[in-house]
Specification:
By secondary structure, this protein is an alpha/beta fold. It is built from 15 helices and seven strands.
């Protein structure tokens, strides 16, 4: 879907209809916030270059999300294609991280509609040093709390692997509507509300279904979805849980408490600024938020992203412990590193 509609213009199908082989809705539109260009080919085979860039910026550990194939491939009915791509990615990460598997991490990718294979893949790669989490990719119509996924959650729990999720707006399944005309067609608006919407839907059903109670060694986290919405979300989810009590099972904790315990987490970068960061910590506590850099993508202010957040004036009030947790310790505790 191109999302080409200019705000205030008449909506037309050419701006909101998917085009086979069409260009990405982000192509030619994204600016570059880098101060220095990252090393060449770090998204391909140059893991030594990544390590050098990590040392330059002061990043101890990188958690890598795969490219768009990982989430889009579940749109195909033939799960064997996804098996091949996911297996190739896992073999690639095993080789790519070999230079420093204690510092270069990623997650096992599985298709929620291919449960038996997913469990086997978790067992085969789950003890690799580069493995720090799992990402369950969901085809349209399959919710994260579907009973068929219980064997995957059980395998993740046995391996102490949390769920990670990177929200998007440019690939299937589209958020928050499934068709472009439901989004009204402008890429700025869609990118703004799609990311939190996808994250909120995922978190809501992980919490409300009792997954966190049944599988105490797992958790749910979202990246590049923002975080300023999270305090309102868990408070409002808790209100509606009480208000509509009969519509969900009994839980051991409130949604806010799951966040304060670090079972529900969101990633933080420099974009929402110090005031929003402090406001979120004031509500969610020190154990919920985790720093993210977006390296090597253009949203990162490489090589200054880490320092920008560490220089927030809020740490004078919140203290060194809160800063260390956000910059490193929360992610180290959440991810299996």
């Amino acid at each position: 879907i191109p999302y080409d509609r200019f705000p205030g213009a008449k909506i037309g199908q050419e701006e909101v209809a998917a085009k086979a082989g069409g260009k990405s809705s982000l192509e030619g539109r994204i600016g570059n916030r880098h101060h220095v260009q990252p090393s060449d080919s770090v998204e391909d085979e140059n893991s030594e270059g990544r390590l050098n860039d990590m040392n330059t910026e002061g990043r101890d550990i990188d958690y890598i999300f795969p490219a768009s194939f990982a989430r889009s491939i579940v749109a195909l009915d033939d799960v064997t294609i996804g098996r091949g791509l996911y297996r190739a990615y896992h073999n690639y990460m095993r080789e790519y991280s070999a230079v420093a598997p204690d510092r270069i991490k990623s997650g096992i990718q599985v298709n929620g509609s291919d449960v038996e294979w997913a469990v086997d893949e978790l067992k085969q790669f789950g003890n690799d040093e580069w493995v720090a989490a799992c990402w369950i990719h969901l085809p349209h119509g399959l919710p994260i709390d579907d009973p068929s996924l219980e064997p995957i959650w059980s395998a993740m729990n046995d391996l102490h692997l949390p769920l990670t999720h990177h929200t998007f707006q440019t690939d299937v399944p589209y958020f928050p509507g499934y068709q472009g005309d439901e989004n009204w067609g402008n890429i700025i608006a869609v990118r703004t509300f799609a990311h939190p919407w996808g994250a909120q839907r995922l978190m809501a059903y992980v919490i409300l279904s009792g997954i966190l109670d049944r599988y105490p060694n797992t958790g749910v986290s979202v990246s590049e979805a923002g975080f300023g919405w999270l305090p309102n979300f868990v408070l409002n989810l808790g209100f509606n849980l009480n208000h509509l009590r009969s519509a969900a099972p009994d839980l051991k904790h409130t949604p806010l408490e799951y966040a304060q315990m670090g079972r529900v987490r969101a990633a933080v970068d420099q974009l929402e600024g110090p005031e929003m960061t402090k406001a979120a910590i004031d509500v969610l506590g020190e154990d919920c938020l985790m720093f993210q850099s977006d390296y090597p993508h253009p949203q990162a202010e490489y090589p200054n992203t880490c320092q920008l957040v560490m220089d927030f004036p809020i740490w004078d009030t919140l203290g060194e412990s809160a800063k260390r947790k956000l910059m490193a310790e929360n992610a180290e505790k959440y991810l299996r590193v």
